Every structure is written in structure tokens, then in C-alpha cells.
């Protein structure tokens, strides 16, 4: 199924998701659950100055637009999420 990502990107592609949310166990667990075992992930994380928020950068190879849409759909459902790109 073609979607807007097909118009903007070439696949397969190395892609980085930036996910920012409340520094809570729930948020961290939900982010970790995104990382499927069928692919390699590179992860970095950093805390805000006040330690109230945490940001994750997750990088992996995305094979097609359907995969990219799948991950964005799941990211949008993360509890304690504040922002993602």
C-alpha cells in the first residue's frame, strides 16, 4: 500500500525516531517494547536538566513505508509521551 512516506523517502532506509516523555518507568518500558527482536536497534537516551523528562533516539533500518507507519502508530500510543519525530 503506497502512502505519503513512499513519496518522500527511499526504502530500505536507516531511520531515527526521537521520542520524548516523562521520566517514568511506564514511559521507559513502552519505549523499550517498540524494539522488536527481528532487527538491530541503536539506542541513546538523555535526561532533561531537571530529570523530569527523558529522550530516546532509536535508530534502525526501515524496509518499507508500511513498517515506518507501523512504528509511528505504536509510538503515538506510548503512555507519558510528550513529543516524537
**Strands, count:** 4
Unreliable stretches, pLDDT < 50, 5 or more residues?
Answer: none
What's the order of the H and E elements?
HEHEEHE
Strand content: 35-45%
**How would you characterize the largest beta sheet?**
4 strands, antiparallel
The N- to C-terminal Cα distance equals: 22 Å
Mean pLDDT: 93
Strand order, sheet with most strands: 2-3-1-4
User: Could you say which structural class the secondary elements and strand pairing correspond to?
Assistant: alpha+beta
Give a brief outline of the structure.
Helix content is 31%, strand content 35%. The chain has helices at 4-8, 25-34, 65-75, and strands spanning 13-22, 42-47, 53-62, 81-84.
Describe the 3D structure.
- The protein has 85 residues and is α+β, with helices and mostly antiparallel strands.
- Helix content is 31%, strand content 35%.
- The chain is built from three helices and four strands.
- The protein has a four-stranded antiparallel β-sheet.
- Strand 2 and strand 3 form a beta hairpin.
- The radius of gyration is 13 Å and the shape is elongated.
